[in-house]
Design a protein that fits this description.
alpha/beta, TIM Barrel, eight-stranded parallel sheet, six-stranded antiparallel sheet, 24 helices
Length: 679
């Protein structure tokens, strides 16, 4: 049950707990996070995991708190420290799977394995998490298994250690709705789910606060994408790389490769449940689905699921079974619904995102590379809908799973605002680096990818760049892959990147342009940070992302942080120092979160769009807080505020920064006027 003195949900801050950043280390940063304006610590998985795990999603014993991360006493001490500073705790749990490892007691005991895990020992088959042999699915549909795997978590909830739960990958479960209903009843605290909503997909009516916010991330990235940039960037991409395929075609091919390759065992298991259905019909039923999964279960089938099944290129008998219209189809439907999410995720996010790379800012969890831009009206519609139905949905910009941090993506979004200049520069880079290419590579597509990566993440060490490029090449699966890597082709790309760092002709052109892109990206990042703090929902900040944070995909996103430096920056701002370019993002986020703390009522109210000129996005929350952000480099935050007296929340200090973001709070009639008042 919710603690009587638990704080309202305003702003979460994700901390990656590991053997090198323990519960004790997290306790040390609590005062800083309280001063920043955070309301809840948001902890990565806290239970026992495989030794040396840097993320905790490979759990071994859900009945114990991780000793490597500090143990239960340290966790409880962290929660106590958070409570002393007025913060709560949100805990990430992983019900879908545990490690198929000798370190997992229930896996090593054959009797326990048969009860807890989703296995078929006669066939030597078990349900995996995605295509990872070392992670085995857990049978959460069994109430007894649910009780055993959640006993410790529910104890922590009852004791007030955990004020909310974040559920990893519920789409992998046999019955997500049933699981969430059982958990909500047992826990009695707010629940968020890691659910990726595809374009046009709505969250089902489950007992949750909402998602972890990937759809919001996608909305904001496409909001800052200039429509006029599509034609020149697309033309340059096609001409320079030779890739003429649509993103949808790339996804279709990638999903077919997944079902015929990595997920062949799961497909064969599915075929064994429907021996009269042609294999091609099973394949199409899996790969054609335009979202992660359907949610068919006995007792009622939603219209959305009927529409999804009707759109599949499969046989009528298969469609009938997927809607439980034939007796005995329950097992087939369950296995089908557990198979489509990993095929979709691996095909899209872990393959197509690395093959179809027109604009890497769009190749993001929650993003849609097949869509270029999103209108302000569409983003307002989404915000109004969220305020009405999921007002505590998380608003994410960077997570441990994002392919690039929000700041890295923002730089790449800036390319769309003057696409003809990017076109000129990238063609020049291809020309001046032709002499670095060997017979072994890189291909034009890999050079395009590298140039965008450098624009987004520079400055970056070569070690980080090499690690990222190796992962990107293997995920793409064009010249190498994880199962059968090609060292010669990989080395050719890495060698090109190494020689590029010493190529004076390239850097003479790249450096000044990259500096311009970085500055433009910072303005975008500041605007997005303000929207995450003020739109309907709960502001979510990934560790380090309150300040400038240029990162690439995991494991780069988990590298150590300079906490003392961030503390010093915040202290200076709180003491009244003017923001600088180095602290501009932190300044805006801190002021916005302080406003939410001082005046929570407007943020519990509605979202109303405010008339704004083209290139400006503006709204009012609860009639008392107004926000405006510039979406283009040549637009401002000048808007006509509603009648009344308003105070500039970002004012009061002298600086010459063009933030491209503004927020005002309505003043009470009896307040004395101040220099920042706007009539």
């Amino acid at each position: 049950m919710t603690r009587p003195d638990a704080p309202p949900w305003r702003a979460t801050y994700r901390l990656q707990i590991s053997a090198t950043f323990t519960f004790d280390d997290a306790r040390d940063v609590v005062p800083y996070l309280a001063d920043l304006g955070i309301s809840h610590l948001y902890l990565s998985p806290i239970l026992e995991a495989v030794r040396g795990s840097t993320h905790g999603y490979d759990g071994t014993d859900p009945t114990r708190v991780s000793a490597e991360r500090g143990g239960e006493d340290a966790l409880r001490a962290l929660a106590d420290e958070a409570h002393r500073h007025g913060l709560g705790v949100l805990v990430d749990i992983v019900p879908n799977h545990l490690a198929a490892s000798d370190e997992t007691p229930w896996w090593t005991d054959p009797d326990e394995r048969a009860v807890v895990f989703d296995v078929d020992d006669d066939r030597g088959w078990y349900r995996r998490f995605f295509d990872i042999d070392g992670l085995a699915g857990v049978r959460q549909e069994d109430p007894a298994v649910f009780e055993r795997t959640h006993a410790k978590v529910l104890e922590l909830v009852r004791d007030g250690v955990a004020d909310g739960l974040r559920i990893d990958h519920p789409d992998g479960l046999a019955d997500p709705a049933g699981y969430l209903e059982r958990l909500a009843e047992a826990a009695g605290v707010p629940i968020w789910i890691e659910k990726v909503l595809h374009t046009g997909e709505r969250l089902r009516p489950w007992p949750v606060e909402g998602t972890v916010g990937y759809e919001v991330l996608g909305d904001l990235d496409h909001l800052w994408t200039a429509p006029e940039g599509e034609q020149p960037i697309t033309a340059a991409y096609r001409e320079l790389t030779g890739d003429l395929q649509s993103f949808e075609a790339v996804v279709s091919q990638a999903k077919q490769e997944q079902i015929r390759g990595a997920f062949r065992p799961e497909l064969e298991h599915l075929a064994g449940l429907a021996p009269d259905i042609a294999l091609v019909d099973l394949e199409r039923a899996v790969t054609d689905l335009p979202c992660y999964r359907t949610y068919v279960r006995p007792g009622g089938i939603a219209d959305e699921d009927r529409e999804l099944v009707a759109g599949l290129r499969t046989s009528e008998p298969m469609r009938a079974r997927l809607l439980l219209e034939e007796p005995g189809s329950e097992e087939l439907v369950s296995r089908y619904q557990q198979l489509t999410p990993p095929v979709s995720a691996k095909g899209i996010e872990d393959t197509a995102f690395y093959r179809s790379t027109r604009l890497l800012a769009h190749n993001e969890v929650g993003g849609d590379p097949g869509t270029w831009a999103r209108s302000p009206a569409a983003v307002h519609d989404a915000a109004e809908d969220r305020a009405a139905h999921h007002p505590r949905n998380l608003l994410a910009g960077t997570t441990h799973d994002t392919k690039r941090s929000a700041d890295t993506r923002a730089r790449l979004l800036a390319l769309t605002h003057d696409a003809s200049r990017f076109d000129e520069h990238v063609r020049r880079w291809f020309a001046v680096t032709d002499d670095l290419v060997t017979d072994a590579g890189p291909r034009p597509a890999e050079r395009w990818y590298l140039f965008q990566t450098l624009l987004g993440a520079w400055p970056i060490t070569f070690d980080r760049l090499e690690e990222h490029l190796t992962k990107a090449l293997r995920e793409a699966g064009r010249i190498t892959d994880w199962v059968d890597p090609d060292p010669e082709r990989e080395d050719a790309v890495i060698a090109f990147a190494r020689r590029l760092l010493d190529h004076t002709g390239f850097w003479a052109d790249f450096s000044p342009y990259a500096a311009e892109v970085a500055a433009a990206g910072e303005r975008i990042s500041i605007g997005q940070a303000l929207l995450r703090a003020t739109l309907p929902g709960v502001c979510d900040t990934y560790q380090g992302d309150e300040s400038w944070f240029l990162s690439l995909v995991d494991p780069d996103v988990r590298r150590p942080l300079d906490w003392s430096g961030r503390r010093a920056q915040l202290d200076a701002l709180v003491a009244g120092s003017a923001p600088t370019r180095a602290t501009a993002k932190l300044f805006v986020l801190h002021r916005a979160l302080d406003l939410r703390r001082r005046r929570p009522e407007p943020f519990a109210g509605d979202h109303r769009r405010l008339d704004a000129p083209d290139g400006t996005f503006a709204f009012v929350r609860g009639g008392e807080v107004a926000v405006a952000v510039a979406l283009r480099p040549d637009t401002t935050t000048e808007v006509q505020l509603p009648p009344g007296r308003w105070r500039d929340v970002l004012g009061g200090v002298d600086h010459d920064l063009d933030l491209g973001a503004a927020v005002w709070e309505r003043r009470a009639d009896d307040d004395a006027p101040d220099p920042e008042e706007h009539p």
